[in-house]
Each structure stands twice: as C-alpha cells, then as structure tokens.
Amino acid sequence: MAQITIAGAGLVGCLLGVVLARRGHRVTIFERRPDMRSANISAGRSINLALSDRGLQALSIAGLAEELRAIAIPMSGRIMHDTSGSTHYQPYGREGQAINSVSRGELNKTLLTAAEQAGVEIVFSARCTDVHPATATATFELENGDSRTVEADILFGADGAYSAVRERLMKTDRFDYSQSYLEHGYKELHIPPSADGGFLLDKHALHIWPRKSYMMIALPNIDGSFTCTLFFAHNGSPSFAELRSDADVQSFFDQQFPDAAALMPTLLEDFRTNPESSLVTIRCSPWTFAGRTALIGDAAHAIVPFYGQGMNCGFEDVRVLVDCLDVTGEDWPTALSLYERYRKPAGNAIADLAVENFKEMRDKVADERFLKRKSIEAWVYQNYPDRFVPLYTLVTFSPDVPYDEAQRIGREQDVIMEDLLDHPDVRADWTTDAAQSVIRKRIESLPTLNIRPLSPKNNLV
Amino acid sequence: MAQITIAGAGLVGCLLGVVLARRGHRVTIFERRPDMRSANISAGRSINLALSDRGLQALSIAGLAEELRAIAIPMSGRIMHDTSGSTHYQPYGREGQAINSVSRGELNKTLLTAAEQAGVEIVFSARCTDVHPATATATFELENGDSRTVEADILFGADGAYSAVRERLMKTDRFDYSQSYLEHGYKELHIPPSADGGFLLDKHALHIWPRKSYMMIALPNIDGSFTCTLFFAHNGSPSFAELRSDADVQSFFDQQFPDAAALMPTLLEDFRTNPESSLVTIRCSPWTFAGRTALIGDAAHAIVPFYGQGMNCGFEDVRVLVDCLDVTGEDWPTALSLYERYRKPAGNAIADLAVENFKEMRDKVADERFLKRKSIEAWVYQNYPDRFVPLYTLVTFSPDVPYDEAQRIGREQDVIMEDLLDHPDVRADWTTDAAQSVIRKRIESLPTLNIRPLSPKNNLV
To answer: Which residues are CB-contacts of A103 (< 8 A; sequence separation ≥ 6)?
Structure first.
C-alpha cells in the first residue's frame, strides 16, 4: 500500500483518488479552492462539458458511469444555425451514439463525494507552494496560514493547466515545455429555460452558429437553459476588442446570431460581466520524475476545447494508469514510465486535433464539400466498418483507440477522401452507382484497420 | 533623449548599450555577475565563439569591428578528422571568406569598456528581482543587499537564455513560450599550445571529428591552444552516462578521436571537472510589451550552437533595431514593433537551421553524396551567383539576407540539388560535360534570387 498525494481535486484528481483508494492506497488530495459543495464558487473555466465514451469508460472503472449518465443530456448531433435562422442537423455517429452535456460543477461535486466515500482525505483551501519531485514531497499553505509538508511515496500533479507541480518540474534539468495561445478567446453567455421550464432549442444536439472566422455554440443544461460560448478573436476585425458598447454587442448579435439573440434576455449584462478568457495549448516532457512524481490531466496536456476531449482525455489518463499498475503488479516507477510512454503521444495528438477541429466547427461545417464528405464517410463506415472509421467516430466513440492512432488514421483518410471528392463521378453525384463503384474500389483496396492498443494491458489480452 | 535600462551586460546588452548611448540616450546596464574585467569568472557557456559577417556588420555600427578582428583567428573552412587521423578540408566559402574564432571573455571585456566609454553606466552584481513591463520598471538586488527600482522610458531584457525579464513577461496574458532540449549535451575540453607556443592543429580551420550520432569540434585560441567541445548524448549508448571511469573516457577517446586524444594531456581531469551542459532552444512571443519593454538576443531566441550564429543573431538584432529607430525617427513604440516584426521570423529560422546543422556537422560532412553536393553547389554559385547562393553562404557570409529568407531559399535548393544528385549523369561524374549541362539547364531555369530586406531601412533605400 502506497501513500499518495494528489495536488488538485478537480475532475481528474478526484477520479484518480477514487481508483487509487479503491486499490487500497492511502490517498490525500490537496485542493487550492474551498469545497465547492458548500462554498458558492465557480467550478472552473466552463459551465458545461461534453462527456463522451472515453470519459465514461474511465468512469466505469470507478463504478461512476451510470450515476453520471443520470445527470447528463445526450446530444446525438450538431445543429448548425445560419444567419437567417435556418438550421441543418448532422448526426455525430450512428443511431444511439451521443456525447453528453454535463455540468462541470455537478460532475465535480459527485466525484468529490465519491472520493471521500472511497476513503480519500481531501484538504481544501490548500495552496501548493513547493514541491520536491525526487522525494514526492509537497508543501501546502493551509487556510489558517499554516504550512503543511507531506512526503509521500507518489505525488500526482492533477492541478490543471496552470499546475504548480509542473511549474516546479520546469526547474529540473532539461524539461521541455511549451504554452501556445490561440488568437481567439471565449466568453460564456446564457439562454434561459422557457416560461414553463422547457428548452428553447432542441436539447438533444450541440448547437453551432459557424461564421468562418468565429463561432458560437450552445450546450443544454438539465434546468432547461443553454450555455452559449462565443469563440471570437481577441483583437482585429471582427473581435471582442471591437464590441465596445452595449449597442455594438446587440447589433453584432442581431446580425450574426439573430435566432439566438432573440432567446438571450441577459445578453448585454452577460457580455459585460463574464470574462473574456484565453485558449491555450500546453505541452511538456517528461511527465514523470524519478518514478515518484507524475503529471496527469490538464497539468500534463492542456488543450483547447474544440474536440470536447479535455476532460475525457484526463479521465483516460487515469484508465491507462490503472492498466499500467495492473500489468506491472504495482511497480510504481515502471508503471509511471509505461503510463508516460502510452499517454504522451496520445496527449500530443489530441492537442493537435483539438486545434484543427476549431477550423472545422467554425468554417467547414457550413461548407457543401465538407457536408458531402461527411455523408460519404458515414456510408463508407456503414459498408466497411473494418476498413474505414471516420475520425470523429475514432476520437469520440472509440474508447479503445489511442488519440495518436486516430490522428494517424485520420490523416490517411484525409488524402483518400479529398481524392475521391475530386473524382468527376463523385463530384457530380456521389449516390450514383458509377460514383459508388469508384468509392468502393478505393476503400476495398485499403487494408483492415490495424490499431495500436490504448494501454499495455490491451497488449496482453 | 530616452532613459534606457538594459538587463544584462553580456555581448548583446553591451553592444546595445554602446549604440544607444552613441545616439544620445541615457543608458544604464544592470548585470547579475561581477565585473569580469576584475573578477576571475567564467564568461558564460562557451570559451570561444565564431564571429561571422553578420556580427561584424553589427559591430561596425559601433565602430568596433576592426578592434575585434584583431583578437580573432580567421577560420576559412572545416577540417574533418576520421578515426584513422586522416583529414579532409572543406572551405566555408570563397577565397578570403572566413569565420572568426574569438574568446567570449575578451570580446565581452572589450564591449564592456566600449560601453563605458560611450557613457553607459554599468551596475554589476545586480540581480533582477522584479519587472513591470508596462512601465519599463525593473528592480535589482544590489551587491550590498539593497534593492534599487528604476523606471525608464524603455527596458531591454538582454539577460540571456534564462532571462529574468522574459520570466516576468511569461506572466502577462497570452504569452507564447517554448523551451526544448536536445538529447545531446556538451563538455568543453582542451588542447594546449605546443612547447614553443605554436598551434598543434591547423589554426585557420574549425576542426570536426564527425561520428554520426555525436561529434567533437575544436576552435583555435590566440594563445596557441584549442578549445574542444564534445557534443554527445546525455543518455543511451554511446553517451556521457556510459563514460563513468577515467579508463572509459581514455579508451573512448583513443578509439574515436585518436589524433586529438594524443594532444590532450589534461583530458581526464578536464572531463571530470568540466560540466556536462545542456542544449536548449527557446522561443517566445511577443518580444515587446506596451511599446516600452523588449527582449533581445538569447533572451528572445536562445538557439543551439551548430550554425555558430547565436551571438551573430543577437548582434544583428541590435543592427535591425537601430534601423527601426532611424526609419521611425525614434518613435519607440513603432520602432519596437517593427523590430519584432523583422526579427521574430529571423530568430525562428536560425533556431531551426541551427538544430538541422547539427545533423550536417556530426553525420553528413563525412558522407560522400554530401561532399559531392557541396562541390556542385560551389561550382553553381561561381557560375550563377545571382541565381544560386549556397545556404551556408547565405547564413554566414550574407549579412543583408534575413535568416528566414536563407531558410526558405535553402529549402528550395534542397529539392533542386537532391534531384540533380539523383540524375544518372550527375551520379556517374558531375564534372563531365553531360552532367554539367544537366545542372546548367536546371539552374538557368531558376529566377534571379529575390530576397526580402533585412530591415525596414533596406526597404526604403
């Protein structure tokens, strides 16, 4: 049994605490903020998140998947809104496949309670002030001003994009690090429930208002409201910097998002009050130090939100770590090194994919060629599921496929599909026999998909 | 007249101080270390450096080029040493073109004195502890323990790869940053002068012992000695980690560098005593803040040493900054913004080129195809100097060509030369009429080189 310190009681830190405590380890989590179950504080950067199969798969290890499905709203596809208010629906996957809108706060509260029930000690309002990675020792400043220094067998930094544990690792020799910001930021806005408590937009979809250089999205909440997020350039034209007055904001929304603006009575106040936040990608290496300290979740790989995978990727880190502990018989240094070997390429890949998907969401989803490609891909997937699985499906609905494999396969498919779309028969009408024979021939020439396993455990079965 | 603070009295900080003081500004430099002209301290990471045309061009603005040539040893080419001790000479450029081996310490001392003579105040043993970039304010802890806070009109961070000014800029919103280490590190070693004070190797060359995955180089010093640098993997096989005992070191050198080892009486002691240092590339953005604070030299773009351009690039930053001040009539915010616009792509390019040149130096210089390509390039350059200038010449001997232009042109040439080398006639013997006609035809199809100017000043003349 190991003594384990986790910095950060966010989503990933709590799930990690649950699974390690259930394995018999003595786990203490230190959290910078007060207990969100009693204090009225914001849960973090976004109000709701899309929980998908990877996240659910990891939660199921802790027996939490069903409990969390109960507070989630399944979204089976995207609904695109144009400036006239017309909409177009595009399913995310097959019948029955969906991503799930969940409240970050509710999810975190559930996980905090699950951690305590599993025997984890959680110390709130404890700020990490120092770390000695070689000895898994961390010092925290407590609420009463006292300092507490804890030496453990293993120290995890699950303390998010601005991780204090990672900041200390940066001072070790030859630590690679990068932080890279998008030119776009975001602001959260609000569509309330209808007078009778119903939903003012279709609740079983993620709504997108794609506008080429920017976009707004909306996800449903269980109270009937929607949380909208405007992703918009910080500066330039158009940008947040240009929307100076209430009149600027109202006129911009009336022109660009008229159907949404009509449902946003608090638009001007929300726009003034809510922060304009930044979007960063953070990469670093190594994630582990001396077999005793490790980074996990956003602390290891903060990504932009455009594939809805930040939380899912963090939960998957926990799932793979558990597999590494299993296959090594809890030889921690070996397990941590295996964990890093499997997860680092995955983290890098989803970081890239997330940046690339912004372009897809804000621009390409409104593009005819792109929509045609999506239709062809769905048809090909249905007919050749062992040869062709669309990238979105690999990322979102294939929890045993590593992100880096999804990225690799996606790039190969990109070439094939763009080629096919250039073929005159396919260009004319892809549903004709002639066109489909061209498509079939190309797909039948592909080998069966051969995918590297997600974790060393899959390797052994 | 502006009040200017410069953090760092290294090579770039001093040159910047000289040129700004000569323009009539009131300049104070704060330097963390004591005065190297009186204290016996190491001058920094490497004992000698290769000063090339870009650096000389920038030094000439301060009237220092000739003074520094006097303490430099020109190296007109590379001498490659194989494991049998056989050597092969390869000129760097045309007759009369050379890079110059200079002592970092002597160069820095000369620049310190030049700065003082130009009226710069230099405060030594002053560690930067805080910076307010928006107000060009910096705080320094002085030798006596006192703290001194200086608000200036303009603050420059010329404080090197581990810049304190940049560290403070990292805390501003949306600051992009990356630090990336090579798997290789380096250790400096020593070949003394001969008994009569002469040079034990040819002094007019840079010596290279290329060994594919690693290499050693040697540069001459004015006292007749050579400083050798072993670039070697930190870990793995072979690596520094493997050379544990004196016997390991001696046997490795005897096998791999027999001719050099015979000239290194203090090899074992040097190897034990001298540090195993890391090689890092640092990039960041933005380099300027609020029109009042700017990074320059390694603080803005630390690069690996394999193109011999780190100091030259930093000096060129100063040259371009001066041009920006000229064309804007010393409108500082505009000048700094122009400086960043011209220098950031250049800094990125030389960072890439420097990493790529490691591969060339340690591996390709011993490769037959590579040597043939070098010969063909020299011949093409001689015959078509307006259409084809070799990459090494663009970087090293073309001080008006931006590094990013050199990189772009180098990539185009790469394709052309590799194509030509694959041609059967060229492969058989490139000096035949048939082969040269193939080469001529290809080169004559190229447009005349069209190169973006180095600075906004060149744009206007």
So the answer is: A43, A47, A48, A71, A221, A222
Return d(Cα A206, Cα A19) in angstroms, integer.
31
Which candidate in A173, A174, A280, A304 is best for mutational testing of the B interface (most B CBs within 10 A)? A174
At A397-423, the pLDDT tens digits run 999 999 999 999 999 999 999 999 999
In angstroms, the Cα distances linking A380 to A433, A439, A444, B392 are 14, 8, 10, 50
Lookup: tokens for A301: 């790989």
Ranges of beta strands (E only) in A249-326 are 277-285, 288-289, 293-295, 301-302
Tokens found for residue A154: 């293993």
Q: How far apart are CA A229 and CA A208, in angstroms?
A: 10
Strands A226-233 and B127-132 come out as unpaired
Annotate B112-143 with b (16+ C-beta within 10 A) or e (fewer).
bebbbebebebbbbbbbeebbbeebbbbbbee
pLDDT in tens, B363-394: 887 788 998 999 999 999 999 999 999 999 99
Contacts of A28 (CB under 8 A, 6+ apart): A4, A5, A6, A120, A121, A122, A123, A150, A152
Among A158, A218, A214, A201, residue whose Cα is nearest residue A20:
A158
Instruction: Annotate B161-200 with b (16+ C-beta within 10 A) or e (fewer).
Output: bebbbbebbeeeebbebbbbbbebbbbbbbbeeeeeeebb
Residue type, B235: N
Cα separation, B379 vs B390, in Å, equals 10
Amino acid identity of residue B294, one-letter, is A
pLDDT of residue B461: 41
Asked if residues B152 and B139 have their Cβ atoms less than 8 Å apart, the reply is no
**A191: which DSSP letter?**
E
Cα(A288)–Cα(A155) distance, rounded to whole angstroms? 10
- A155 three-state secondary structure: strand
Number of H helices, E strands in chain B: 16, 20
- Of B112, B87, B140, B107, nearest to B9 (Cα)? B112
Distances (CA, A) of A304 to A145, A279, A313, B257, B292: 35, 6, 12, 50, 31
Q: Among the residues of B23-145, which ranges form H helices? A: 53-61, 65-69, 104-117
pLDDT tens digit string along A356-402? 999 888 888 778 899 899 999 999 999 999 999 999 999 999 999 99
Distance from the B74 Cα atom to the nearest Cα atom in chain A, whole angstroms: 34
Residue B234 in contact with partner chain A when CB distance is under 8 A: yes
The count of other CB atoms within 10 Å of the CB of residue B236 is: 12
Contact B392, B93 (CB under 8 A): yes
Q: What's phi and psi for B231, nearest 5 deg?
A: -100, 120
- Predicted TM-score (pTM) of this structure: 0.90
B312-357 pLDDT, tens digit each: 999 999 999 999 999 999 999 999 999 999 999 999 999 999 999 9
**Dihedral of the alpha carbons of A202, A204, A210, A216, in degrees to the nearest 10:** 80
pLDDT tens for residues B7-54? 999 999 999 999 999 999 999 999 999 999 997 766 555 788 999 999
Note whether A25 and A311 are within 8 A (CB): no
A146 reaches B (C-beta below 8 A)? no
DSSP annotation of A359: H
Alpha carbons within 13 A on the beta-carbon side of A323? 24
| Radius of gyration of chain A, Cα coordinates, nearest whole angstrom | 23
Q: Does the beta carbon of A173 lie under 8 angstroms from any beta carbon of chain B?
A: yes
B/e letters for B340-365, b = 16+ CB within 10 Å, e = fewer, are bebbbbbbbbbbbbbbebbebbbbbb
Structure confidence at residue A364 (pLDDT): 81
Chain B CA closest to residue A185: B174
Give yes or no for B177 touching A (CB within 8 A): yes
My answer on whether omega of the bond before A238 falls inside 30° of 0, hence cis, is: yes
